[in-house]
From TrEMBL:
It comes from Danionella cerebrum. Residues 257-338 form the Alpha-macroglobulin receptor-binding domain. The lineage of its organism: Eukaryota, Metazoa, Chordata, Craniata, Vertebrata. SUPFAM superfamilies: Alpha-macroglobulin receptor domain, Terpenoid cyclases/Protein prenyltransferases. This is Alpha-macroglobulin receptor-binding domain-containing protein. One of its GO terms (cellular component) is extracellular space. InterPro entries: A-macroglobulin_rcpt-bd, A-macroglobulin_rcpt-bd_sf, A2M/Complement_sys, Alpha-macroglobulin_TED, Terpenoid_cyclase/PrenylTrfase.
Length: 339
């Protein structure tokens, strides 16, 4: 958080002599020797690059080079050890901060641009068809980094022609100084098909192919289920009384669930008597941990639901206000920690 705030102040061109910035950098410098978090290391590197602290910046960038994940011409970073993190929001953000750090210096060398180009090549492969990324945060940081890269490789001269061909389809895109900021798009007719892309010229261009298709809505594998039924409560004679019986079942891969919530929406005009559900302090077999009644709903917290061992619950409902055209009420059950 300190690195994020300090970097923000430095981006606003607050001088490093400002007491807040100076104390922030001092706090950060004391922590760089025990850095175990890749995200923090990348953010620190960008912060000290903004502060023009070349010595600290160099140490952090060297550490990041050791942590880099290289795939041929592509280079990126990940918070996890997994190599299969393409499109991961945090990986995009970390790699963008490294790119910002690499390009934020008094002078950017050809080697720096070569290093940056490998990161850019990975980043643009993560962009979706609309130019963004996985989330708002990684999109903001990535676009900032790509924009900075664009200023470093900007040239007022040159043009390029991009040719896209297949056996039955051909397109040509001319990128000149007059239209270089114009987004150009054409639909491909021969799909599925094998296309080749050829670029001639001296201007830097970005080419993206986007494929859109529809798939059937996947069916969710539900391991938790709930069955409910109501019947007239004959034991109570005053007014209309219902007995709501619930059965919560678990049929997943574990022996038991985590804590489970049964969220019971009451019928309009009815109130619930949950006294029969209240946890019995003298019973070791009751799985009810807590019962909360909130306005028109009842929340039942179950310690767990064992596999293939359904939990049965009963609630007495009493009608206090007659309601015409009574609509059904929803009851849902979910794992507290993995909804």
């Amino acid at each position: 958080m300190t690195a994020y705030v300090t970097a923000s102040l430095l981006e606003l061109e607050t001088p490093v002599t400002d007491p807040v910035v100076a104390k922030g950098l001092s706090c950060l410098k004391s922590a760089i020797y025990d850095m175990k978090n890749t995200y923090a290391t990348a953010l620190f590197a960008y912060t000290f690059s903004l502060a023009r602290d070349t010595e600290t910046r160099k140490k952090l960038l060297q550490k990041l080079e050791d942590l880099a994940i290289s795939h041929g011409p592509l280079l990126h970073w990940s918070q996890s050890d997994s190599k299969d993190d393409s499109g991961d929001s945090l990986s995009v953000e970390i790699s963008s901060y490294v790119l910002l750090a690499a390009l934020t210096a008094d002078s950017v060398s050809t080697a720096d641009l070569g290093f940056a180009n490998r990161i850019v090549s990975w980043l643009v492969k993560q962009q979706n068809a609309y130019g963004g990324f996985s989330s708002t945060q990684d999109t903001v940081v990535a676009l900032q980094a790509l924009s900075l890269y664009a200023t470093k490789v900007f040239s007022a001269d040159g043009s390029s022609t991009v040719s896209v061909r297949s056996a039955g389809d051909a397109h040509h895109f001319d990128v000149t100084q007059e239209n270089k900021l114009l987004y150009q798009e054409k639909p491909l007719a021969s799909v599925p098909g094998k296309y080749s892309i050829e670029v001639k010229g001296s201007a830097c261009v970005s080419v993206q192919v986007a494929q859109f298709y529809n798939i059937p809505t996947p069916t969710e594998a539900k391991t938790l289920s709930i069955n409910a039924k109501t019947e007239e409560d004959c034991k109570k004679t005053s007014g209309r009384n219902l007995l709501l019986s619930l059965t919560v079942k678990y049929d997943g891969g574990q022996k038991r669930t985590n804590m489970v919530i049964a969220d019971i929406k009451l019928l309009s005009g009815f109130t619930a008597d949950t006294s029969s559900l209240e946890p019995n302090k003298h019973s070791n077999t009751s799985l009810v941990e807590q019962v909360d009644s909130k306005d028109d709903r009842v929340l039942v917290y179950l310690k767990e639901v064992p596999k293939a061992n359904p939990v049965n619950l009963q609630i007495h409902l009493t009608q206090i206000v007659p309601v015409k055209n009574l609509k059904p009420a929803v009851i849902k059950v979910y794992d507290y920690y993995q909804t």
